[in-house]
Amino acid sequence: MLITNDQKTIVTSSRDKKIKVYDWINDKVLATLSGHSSNVESIIFSFDEKYLFSGGDDKRVVVWHTGLWTELCYLEADFPVYTIQIT
Hints:
The chain is mainly β. The chain has one domain: Thrombin, subunit H, CATH 2.40.10. It is built from no helices and eight strands. The strands form two sheets. Strands 1-2-3-4 form a four-stranded antiparallel sheet, with no helix packed on it. The protein starts with a strand and ends in an 11-residue tail after the last strand.
């Protein structure tokens, strides 16, 4: 689970192949992101929170635009992606 710096938005990943974006203050689902074909194991924001990166058992890292909550691109890995680190 991730919380944005302004603490208004929560992002969760799950074993249902989806990422959910919540406005927890107003109790609303802002987006459901479907870009993985298996469990989503890892999520992380870019430092400026303009992008969300997700990794999963499907050996993909998906890059999401957080302003529109849309998939920008994905990268194929050789193994399932259980953790993502940005430097």
